[in-house]
Specification:
- By secondary structure, the chain is an alpha/beta fold.
- It folds into two domains: about 130 residues, Leucine Dehydrogenase, chain A, domain 1 (Rossmann fold); about 140 residues, NAD(P)-binding Rossmann-like Domain (Rossmann fold, 3-Layer(aba) Sandwich).
- It has a six-stranded mixed sheet with strand order 2-1-3-5-6-4, sandwiched between helices. It has a six-stranded parallel sheet with strand order 9-8-7-10-11-12, sandwiched between helices.
- The radius of gyration is 19 Å and the shape is globular.
- The two termini are about 25 Å apart.
């Protein structure tokens, strides 16, 4: 798109931001949907966050994605929050309003869309989630939105997970080794920790091979490497597993819709997928 006086500006806010793939996605969507927008990234320290938002509002910047460490700390500076973001307790998308920026969480919707091929293993079923960090909030909400009956939450610190998620009686909190207390069955599992993230490719959040006998299907929200050790161990026991690149893609699709009121079409999604795979894996593979 040609940049002119009508060009809208959107950006990522975080610290650091140099690694982000959001400009690739949003600028690709802008091209495919003929939206006159430029998307960039701003490295903003926590102590400068309020001032950054005030300046952005004065400049009329259309919207932001928010990444670490600001997903929760930005909330006091917002003019309002979407109900889903309120339930999750974190935001990753800010949209300009007459009064300031309204907060949304498209991580949950991105996860839900990436998990559509696993609906039969989630709806009205008990499922497993590994981790209780920042990403787990949105994934847990997404699992219940998809109809999960109960979530077994495995975390290195059961006390931390209990403090965060224990108030919901549908959740069963266990330490990592507590998987042996889960009834014998085949489960869908969402892996929400950073264990196995490149360059630590050979690490897995749970090393015991007995755990993977229980997993019929899984999503690892890590997307680099393309196949994590967790995914490989699931597949070695006959399960199917996908990585987190579709979640990254679809949360961006939803953010774009919130900013511009435009739904990215299938051709636009396909083009962005191809660009994403070439950027991350150095090839044109598109398995999402």
């Amino acid at each position: 798109m040609e940049v002119d006086g009508k060009t809208k500006v959107c950006a990522l806010l975080g610290d650091p931001v140099e690694h982000t793939l959001s400009p690739l996605l949003h600028n690709s969507f802008g091209e495919s949907e003929k939206v006159n927008v430029v998307y960039t990234a701003f490295n903003v320290k926590k102590e400068g966050l309020e001032a950054a938002l005030k300046g952005a509002f004065a400049l009329g910047i259309r919207g932001f994605n928010v990444t670490v460490p600001h997903k929760e700390s930005v909330i006091p500076f917002l003019s309002g929050m979407d109900p889903l973001a309120e339930r999750i307790g974190a935001v990753n998308t800010l949209a300009l309003t007459d009064k300031g920026y309204k907060g949304y969480n498209t991580d949950a919707t991105g996860f839900m869309r990436s998990a559509l091929g696993f609906e039969d293993e989630i709806r009205d079923r008990e499922v497993i989630m590994i981790g209780a960090g920042g990403a787990a909030n949105a994934v847990l909400c997404g699992l219940y939105e998809l109809g999960a009956k109960r979530v077994y939450i495995l975390n290195r610190s059961a006390a931390k997970a209990e403090a965060k998620f224990g108030s919901d009686k549908r959740n069963v909190i266990l330490p990592l080794e507590g998987f042996r207390d889960i009834p014998d069955n085949k489960y869908f599992c969402a892996q929400c920790t950073s264990v196995g993230l490149s360059p630590n490719d050979e690490a897995a959040p749970i090393e015991d091979k007995d755990f993977y006998k229980m997993i019929g299907s899984a999503i690892d929200i890590i997307y680099k490497p393309e196949e994590t050790r967790f995914m490989r161990m699931v597949r070695e026991k006959g399960g199917r597993a996908e990585n987190g690149l579709p979640m990254l893609l679809f949360q961006a699709v939803e953010s774009f819709r919130i900013y511009h009121g435009v739904t990215v079409g299938e051709e636009g999604i396909k083009e962005a997928k191809d660009r994403l795979y070439r950027k991350v894996y150095g090839n044109g593979k598109n398995s999402t």
